[in-house]
Automatic annotation (TrEMBL):
Record-given protein name: 4-hydroxythreonine-4-phosphate dehydrogenase
UniProt enzyme class: oxidoreductase
Organism: Listeria grayi DSM 20601
Keyword Secreted: no
Record flagged with keyword Calcium: no
Molecular function in Gene Ontology: 4-hydroxythreonine-4-phosphate dehydrogenase activity; metal ion binding; NAD binding
Pfam families: PdxA
Reported cofactor(s): a divalent metal cation
Record's keyword terms, sorted: Metal-binding, NAD, Oxidoreductase
Length: 345
C-alpha cells in the first residue's frame, strides 16, 4: 500500500511542539508506514536540538513537498521562516509565536486541499498567542472548518478503544445547553458512525449521552432529552445506525471503557474531555512528572484529514527534555489509518 504523506505542524514555536516533533521523527519505524514532514521554522528546531543536545539529527530544508526525502535519520522541514530566533522566548505567550503557529496550520490545510499531502497532524497552539496575532479562532477545529468551508464537523477524542465526539466544544456551558438540538445531535451521530467505519469498524454502536443528570429521569431534571436528544436517536435508528441512549453520563463512560460501545456522543466539551484525559493522562506524584500523556484529537466532517495531540503547549516543560511524544505518535498513527482508508477507495 502507498505510504501516506503526513504534514505535521510544529505547533507554537515557544512550546514543547518542536521537541516532540524532533523526537517523534527520529523514530525510524515511523518511515515504514508513512512519509512525514514538519511544517515550521528550521531555526527553532535547530535551536531546540542544540539546547537539548539531541544527537544524530539531520534536518533537510524544503519549500515544496516534492523536495522531501522521507528518509529515516533525516527530518524534512517545510521552512516557513516566520520566527526571529533572537526574539523568541521559549515558554512564553507572544504575538510572533502565535502568528507563526497559525500560519503553519494554514499551510498544512493548503497542502491538504491541494492533495500535496494525504493527511495533516497538528501540535498544540496557544489560543492567547494566536489571538494576540489577530487571528480570533477558538482553536484548531474552527480554523480547519473555516479554511475548508466546512459547516458540519465535530471533534473526536480517542484513547485506545474509547472514542468521543462532541455536539459542542469551545462555547460557554450555558451556550452548550442551548446548542443541544435534534438536527445537531443527529448530524454528530452520523459523523460518529462514519468515523468508526473509516477506522475499520464495520458495524459500530454509537452511544449518546444525556445532557442532564440521569438523562433527566423522565423529565424530572430537564426536557432536553425528550425534546431534542431522543428524537435525534430515533431518526438515526430509522437510517439504520445502531444507537444506544440517551445513556446517563455518569454510567456511560465506564460502559464505553468496558467495550459496550464503539463511540460516544457527548453533549459538551468537558463531558467528553474529562473521561478521556482521566484515562490518557497519568501523573506520577512521587516522581513529579507525567508518565503518560496519550490520546488523539481528530476533526471529523472535513474534506481533509486532521488529527492532533490531545494536550496543550506545556510551557512549563519547554526544553527540559521531559516532554512526552506519545500523543503525537498516536496522532500520526490515526492520520495514517484514515489516509489509508481514503487511498484505498
Amino acid at each position: 500500500m502507498k505510504k501516506p504523506i503526513i504534514a505535521i505542524t510544529m505547533g507554537d514555536p515557544a512550546s514543547i511542539g518542536p521537541e516532540i516533533s524532533i523526537r517523534t521523527l527520529l523514530n525510524p519505524t515511523l518511515y515504514d508506514t508513512t512519509k512525514p514532514l514538519i511544517i515550521g521554522d528550521l531555526n527553532v528546531l535547530e535551536k531546540v536540538q542544540q539546547l537539548l543536545k539531541i544527537e544524530q539529527v539531520t534536518f533537510h530544508r524544503i519549500t515544496s513537498v516534492q523536495d522531501a526525502l522521507f528518509q529515516p535519520g533525516t527530518i524534512d522541514v517545510f521552512d516557513m521562516e516566520l520566527v526571529d530566533i533572537d526574539k523568541l522566548t521559549f515558554g512564553e505567550v507572544s504575538e510572533m509565536a502565535g502568528e507563526a503557529a497559525f500560519q503553519y496550520v494554514v499551510k498544512a490545510i493548503e497542502l491538504a486541499n491541494e492533495n500535496a499531502v494525504d493527511a495533516t497532524v497538528t501540535n498544540a497552539i496557544n489560543k492567547e498567542s494566536i489571538n494576540l496575532a489577530g487571528h480570533h479562532f477558538a482553536g484548531h477545529t474552527e480554523i480547519y472548518a473555516h479554511y475548508t468551508n466546512s459547516a458540519k464537523y465535530t471533534m473526536m477524542l480517542a484513547h485506545d478503544n474509547m472514542r468521543v465526539v462532541h455536539v459542542s466544544t469551545h462555547v460557554s456551558l450555558r451556550q452548550a445547553c442551548d446548542l443541544v438540538k435534534k438536527e445537531r445531535v443527529l448530524d454528530v451521530i452520523r459523523i460518529a458512525n462514519d468515523a468508526c467505519k473509516q477506522l475499520g469498524i464495520e458495524k459500530p454502536t454509537v452511544a449518546v449521552a444525556g445532557l442532564n443528570p440521569h438523562s433527566s429521569e423522565n423529565g424530572l431534571f430537564g426536557t432536553e432529552e425528550a425534546a431534542e436528544i431522543i428524537p435525534a436517536i430515533e431518526a438515526a435508528e430509522a437510517e439504520g445506525i445502531s444507537v444506544a441512549g440517551p445513556v446517563p453520563p455518569d454510567t456511560l463512560f465506564p460502559k464505553a471503557m468496558g467495550g459496550w460501545y464503539d463511540i460516544v456522543v457527548a453533549m459538551y466539551h468537558d463531558q467528553g474531555h474529562i473521561p478521556l484525559k482521566l484515562v490518557g493522562f497519568q501523573y506520577d506524584q512521587e516522581a513529579q512528572k507525567w508518565n503518560n500523556v496519550s490520546g488523539v484529537n481528530i476533526t471529523l466532517g472535513l474534506p481533509i484529514i486532521r488529527t492532533s495531540v490531545d494536550h496543550g503547549t506545556a510551557f512549563d516543560q519547554v526544553n527540559k527534555g521531559t516532554a512526552n511524544p506519545i500523543s503525537l505518535e498516536n496522532a500520526i498513527d490515526y492520520a495514517a489509518t484514515l489516509a489509508n482508508h481514503r487511498l484505498a477507495q
